[in-house]
What we know:
The protein is built from four helices and 13 strands.
Amino acid sequence: xxxxxxxxxxxxxxxxxxxxxxxxxxxxxxxxxxxxxxxxxxxxxxxxxxxxxxxxxxxxxxxxxxxxxxxxxxxxxxxxxxxxxxxxxxxxxxxxxxxxxxxxxxxxxxxxxxxxxxxxxxxxxxxxxxxxxxxxxxxxxxxxxxxxxxxxxxxxxxxxxxxxxxxxxxxxxxxxxxxxxxxxxxxxxxxxxxxxxxxxxxxxxxxxxxxxxxxxxxxxxxxxxxxxxxxxxxxxxxxxxx
Length: 242
């Protein structure tokens, strides 16, 4: 397992280099069937995302509309004015999804929670796998699209906000993350596979700039010809070091 993790970390920019990164700023657009269903206003278009690499803290501007911004910090979501004045707060957002099914729309605070923790996970991968309490196990190689991908099963600690406590990550021959399997607890939408494409280098680190999330059936087959749950497009990425 350790040789795979070492290869993956090195391929994405190196763990020592990562430990010097304090914040990441990027431009993000989100669309897709679940975005339209869960948030009547739609997904996000060319929003500014700033995240802290050392704790789960994500800021989205503007959100949910011009003149406001959304903050996910240590499990709490807050909608603020541009000056930082609190407008709405949801202290235990995960519990607010209890009883939801696929057709249940989300409040602006719930959508903020989802994007805040999810995109923090996405952007900090694969370095997220080095967090305290994460348990890794290498699985059998996976064949897909004429390629052989190595796979890691990750079990995350309870204090880390993730889609699901147990997930599988697939890496190609370069060591790049190409697929992530999970079943989001908050969406009520069942199992999903998250594919990453168009990997680009920003300031020495590799980030996928196009993501597509599709459903996965009971036999672990991805429904690639079905409509996308989410499509995520990343523009510029700027890293700030200490």
